[in-house]
Design brief:
The protein is an alpha+beta fold. The chain is about 25% helix and about 30% strand. The chain is built from two helices and eleven strands. Helix 1 runs antiparallel to helix 2.
């Protein structure tokens, strides 16, 4: 009977520590900014005064929509984002203009490994790291029907179990081994 109890306890512990939620940005504070990476006479860095002024919390709903001037609305949700362009912008973005999404801290512990893109925006560039995406808009043009949709590809970071978790797992394994050994000894004594 103790062997069965030990096995059940070990399996319960393994399932309790091994179940993971899908990676999401919901509840995370992310930063979205228009950045000048090339000085075209206006300076370098964050473009202020037109929207996307600072970080905001992703709530995974319609309130995530952030408008940048009269040019586009950015909506970041738990596992994807959309950029819906507004009106016509035939003169094009200046060279070195980037839409940067940063501080993308997916929970549970995950990192950005890629981006699946669906867009009709022509001429953009894309750069990404473990917690940021840069969409290069320099020299691109858009109209009211232009869109850019991105779905995050993330990988969970394999965490080293905490000492308490390791101790519980070890205790469970020792309990299973001990119960098995006692069962074998009882079987030998009876035989």
């Amino acid at each position: 009977m103790r062997l069965v109890e030990g096995i059940v306890a070990g399996l319960a512990l393994a399932f309790a520590t091994g179940v993971a939620a899908a990676p999401t940005l919901e509840g995370d504070t992310v930063d979205a900014a228009m950045i000048r990476t090339v000085d075209t006479g206006y300076g370098l860095g964050r473009v202020v005064g037109y929207g996307l002024e600072g970080p905001f919390v992703v709530v995974n709903g319609p309130t995530d929509g952030q408008q940048y001037s009269e040019h586009f609305i950015l909506d970041i949700d738990g596992d994807h984002f959309t950029v819906d362009f507004l009106g016509q912008f035939s003169s094009g973005w200046q060279e070195g203009t980037v839409l940067r999404l940063s501080d993308l801290d997916f929970s549970p512990a995950s990192v950005l490994t890629g981006l699946d893109v669906d867009t009709n925006l022509v001429g953009y560039t894309l750069a990404l790291g473990a917690d940021f995406i840069d969409i290069g808009l320099g020299e691109t043009h858009f109209s009211g029907t232009t869109f850019f949709n991105g779905t995050f590809r993330v990988s969970q970071v394999t965490a080293i179990p905490e000492p308490t978790t390791l101790a519980l797992m070890l205790a469970g394994l020792l309990g299973v081994a001990s119960a098995g050994k006692r069962a074998q000894q009882a079987a030998r004594s009876a035989g």
